[in-house]
Design brief:
0% strand; elongated; Sel_put; YbdD/YjiX family protein
């Protein structure tokens, strides 16, 4: 059980984990990144980095979609019921 001084309103990162605030934020960013990647895998979304590699090989000279555009396109194709095809 974690006991703290009642005069303090919030526990600091160092009190809980022994880490600095910067280390706590870095850990939270890593956890958020892992959660996001897990969510994309759970819905079956392809990896954006893999898309960029594919695009560079198959469509040189054209600008790739931004990540947000890519995810939106995937969601529309996956859930609009038309079963749209691939880019190539």
């Amino acid at each position: 059980m974690l006991l703290r001084n009642v005069r303090k309103s919030v526990l600091s990162c160092r009190e809980v984990t022994g880490a600095t605030v910067e280390e706590c934020f870095a850990c939270a960013r890593d956890a958020a990144k892992q959660l996001r990647m897990g969510w994309l895998r759970a819905i079956g979304a392809p990896d954006y980095k893999a898309y960029l590699i594919h695009h560079a090989r198959r469509h040189p000279g054209t600008a790739p979609m931004a990540e947000r555009e890519y995810v939106n396109m995937f969601i529309e194709r996956r859930f609009d019921g038309r079963n749209a095809g691939r880019c190539c």
